[in-house]
Amino acid sequence: MTLTDRLSAPLLPSVNVLSEAQVRGTGCVFCGVTLSTETAVDLGPHKLTRLDEVACWFPRACRPCIGGGYVDVLLTTAFTACRALPPPKTLTDTCRRLRHEIRRRLPAATVAAAESGEGSMAWHAHQRTIDASHDALADEAGERPSPLVLAMRVSELGRRLRDLLRYPPCGGFGT
């Protein structure tokens, strides 16, 4: 996988928030469903640094997640965050992945706005989505935010990603 492929592919969850099955490759790294040899898609080797030691791990995913279903998992997590209030490390990881997915889709939104002609109603609709996404990306939760603040941040990023779903991610991964 090239650097461009890695930048345009979905961001893998942090190893710290994965179950043992997900780390071992017997569970989908995105949704956690149990995988078999027939249903698993290898995502290639990834380096992991812990305590100044570098190790490799080999994440795998299910076909629905590779086909874009990981976004459904992200959105479900985002929209239930305030109610479920997951641990801060899970919220931080979800926030990181949502921000990455939003950034993957913004170039397509920008192209759609440019192609619709500046000043048209379609241009304004695209631009409203783009501006709201940029605002959400720029809004930082601060240093050591409370779990509720993190959950609200995740919910807002989920809303912005939902608005961007009509735009394909850059790189064509999952399309």
Briefly say what this structure is.
The chain has 175 residues and is mainly alpha-helical.
Ranges where pLDDT stays below 50 over 5 or more residues in a row are none
How far the N terminus sits from the C terminus, by CA atoms, comes to 17 Å
Number of helices: 6
Helix percent band:
55-70%
Strand content: 5-15%
Which class of secondary structure composition applies to the elements? mainly alpha
Write down the overall geometry. Answer: globular
Question: Radius of gyration from the CA trace?
Answer: 17 Å
- Main-sheet strand order equals 1-4
Number of strands: 4
Mean pLDDT: 88
Main sheet, how many strands, which sense, barrel? 2 strands, antiparallel
State the order of secondary-structure elements, H for helix, E for strand.
Answer: HHEEEEHHHH
Question: What this model shows, in words?
Answer:
By secondary structure, this protein is mainly alpha-helical. 56% of the residues lie in helices and 9% in strands. It has helices at 3-8, 20-24, 63-84, 88-116, 121-138, 147-164, and strands spanning 40-42, 46-50, 53-57, 60-62. The protein has a two-stranded antiparallel sheet. Helix 4 (88-116) packs antiparallel against helix 5 (121-138). The protein is globular and about 50 Å long.
